[in-house]
Design a protein that fits this description.
Elements lengths: L4 E6 L6 H13 L1 H6 E4 L11 H10 L3 E6 L6 E2 L2 E2 H11 L4 E6 L8 H13 L3 E4 L2 H20 L5 H13 L7 E6 L5 H12 L8 H10 L3 E8 L14 E7 H7 L12 E5 L11 E5 L3 H14 L5 E4 L2 E4 L5 H14 L9 E5 L3 E7 L8 H6 L9 H11 L7 H11 L6 E5 L2 E7 L19 H4 L4 H13 L4 H8 L3 H13 L3 E4 L6 E4 L6
Parallel strand pairs: 1-2, 1-3, 3-6, 6-7, 11-15
Antiparallel strand pairs: 4-5, 8-10, 9-10, 11-12, 13-14, 15-16, 16-18, 17-18, 19-20
Amino acid sequence: MMDRLRVFVSSVQRELEDERLVVQNLINTDPFLQAHCSPVLYEMEPASPERAVEGCLRTLDACQVYLLIVGVEYGSVVGERSITHTEYRRAKERGLPVLAFIKGERHLRREQGTAMLLEEIDADGFKYKRFGNVIDLQREVRAALVRLLRDGFGSTPTSDEDEIARQTIEATSPFESSQSDRVSWDDLDHDVARRLIAAADGVAAEALSEQDLLSGAMLRGLVWRDTGNRWPQETGADPTIHTRMDAYYATAAGVVLLSTDPSAVFPQCRILADAYRGVEPDGAPSDHEDIRAPMPLAIERAIAFVDRNTRHPMRVVGLNRVRLDEYPTEALREAVVNAVAHRDYEDAGRKILLEVFSDRVVISSPGLPPAPITLARLRSGKYRPCSRNPVLAQCLSYFHRIEERGSGFRRMADQMLDHGLERPLLGTDMGYFQVTFLGPGDDIDRLRVPEGRLTVTPAMEARLSDRQRAIMGQVLETGSVTTRWCIRELGVARDTAHRDLSALVELGLLVRTGAGRGTRYLPRSGGEG
């Protein structure tokens, strides 16, 4: 498989920051582009002692594609030309593929230097595409990169990947890429950021430095850099130094995922949870929680709310006493993740609703599925994935190990059926998209024991002696057993106790830990081999 192409995104930063971020997010979240390309924005590189232009050029020299976005402004001039113009010249010298995108029509009045740059692009014979908004830009950028990968490397997207990209671009909301200076990088929950970046990069969380966290958050569209907008006295630095300083702030997606209370910025970023004693809302819920937290943590609090407000019958299977959940936890989590990832955040007046009734759990998300997804397609399972918030969807997949994009409703259905329940119901109500999980009602015995939860299967139990059954009963009740317990409670010699315990270890039922008098025998977990 070819190495991913590093695509250098060049533009005047302050004027075209939104466009830069949108291009970055497109490359990072489009399944085909993500497999073949990596976006490179210079402000995300580690700080360099060199002058800005030299740092930009050094970064550009490590890239294989030059992607230029031109607007009205010419940008900061260093020497005879702007940094962006210098980058363009360097890309030409190195013979890189140049993909140029011009914002606005030809007659748009632009700064003199910008007009000169466009004339140079024309004279050099490079083709460029014009765009009017970020939807147009995404379409044109994807088409250009797909063409480059096809012609230069023989890589082409499948028809499904093309259709998914088309639908996602059309459905994409501008919300998650929007920028403000209301929440700084220092104000975000860095523990949550560390979990996200570690999961995304497949590294140990403790191995990540603070710079790694910042770079990782910027790469994923969660943080943006405000270049030179603050004076030193605003930051506590030496006020006699008369230069502006860079600052880092959360994008809307960063606020949702990493802010300690996203609702302080976006009131709609809350989960309102209510539990009722009966089958209808009665105005006096038995439990209520207004969940405000970084959304990865809010999702877990929502699952905990359902857990404490639903039944958990004990089932005895062989030697096992198994605690069952009234609803499959993973199906509930999938539904809440979907609600957070795919809701309409531009509807600032409504929150996600979680309602627990005696016979069902209902999760309501503001906004209907984006076109062309319909309820009929969702119910049939025959639909292509499409998200109005692809950055949020991708980042939440790292937290909650949702790897198969677009198959969430099929997984929910399978998990409910495996649990002994009906498929979830999908519907809409007053502008909300609803997922309803029907419970077992009075027939609690219909619940099934999940696979992998049994430590001792009935077939395995039949192979055990009476003493070994007693040993396993003690382990399952208290969590461990010792040789001394066997001698005392079973009335056997030390050698006999040791033989019984060793046999259970060989059968894969117990694992030995410790040494000497500290030796204990624990149940072997399903994940141990």
